[in-house]
Amino acid sequence: MAEEEQNTETPEETPAEQPLDEAAAEQAAPEAQAADEAPAEEETPVEEAPADEAPAEEAAPEAQVSEPKKKKKRLPRAQRRQRPKPARERPAERKPIARTPKSESERGRRQERRGVVVSSTMDKTIVVKVDTIKAHPRYKKVVRRSAKFHAHDEQNSANVGDIVRIVETRPLSKTKHWKLVQIVEAAK
After folding, report:
1. SS3 105
2. Which residues contact 164 (CB under 8 A, 6 or more apart)?
């Protein structure tokens, strides 16, 4: 029954709405006719333009299909794009360069180690065991590490058990990069 009531109400409302719709349609009709005439004039050139563009658009996809995308190759550093460096302020006067001559022994800071001679059987070469004691960065436990270095002993003066000081030097052989500087304590 509710459906019948809705159906009966709908026809009653429809005639009331029709006069309003007709009046709105009459007002819109002259505007629509004027609007239809203006776009008709505009559409003709507009349609020609897309017609000209359409073949160009079709040609573009064909060109893309025929050429696969080029893979970027890594360029050597010399051929890469150079970024400009920021400009520095130039002082009015240049300071004279004053260089002091360096002695041969001051070529650079050389590492020094102190350790115990483990072997001296080779000619002019000793093996020095260097212990390093370090706290673990996270757990703070003391960790002992040892490394063996081959050092040059020109006079064959060091014996097994001696505590010696060695200094880093230029490579003297495949394994020798250290040189004996001093015997700190002789073995008993």
Report:
1. helix
2. 114, 115, 116, 117, 126, 128, 151, 158, 180, 181, 182, 183, 184
> Are the C-beta atoms of residues 133 and 160 closer than 8 Å to each other?
no
Q: Of 170, 184, 188, nearest to 114 (Cα)?
A: 184
Report residue 46 as tokens.
């507009």
pLDDT of residue 130 exceeding 90, the answer is yes
Indicate if the pLDDT at residue 14 is higher than 50.
no
- The pLDDT assigned to 187 comes to 86
Q: Which residues contact 81 (CB under 8 A, 6 or more apart)?
A: none
Average pLDDT over residues 90-108: 70
| Average confidence (pLDDT) over 173-177 | 95
Rounded to the nearest 5°, which phi and psi values hold at 66?
-70, -35
Q: CA 175 to CA 165: how far, in whole Å?
A: 18
Cα atoms in the 13 Å half-sphere on the side-chain side of 83:
2
Look up tokens 């390093």; give the residue.
132
Place of tokens 């960790």: 143
Question: For position 40, what pLDDT does the model report?
Answer: 46
* Residue 124 CB neighbour total at 10 angstroms: 14
If phi > 0 it is left, if psi is from -120 to 50 it is alpha, else beta; for residue 110 that is beta
How far apart CA 158 and CA 175 sit, in angstroms, is 18
pTM: 0.44
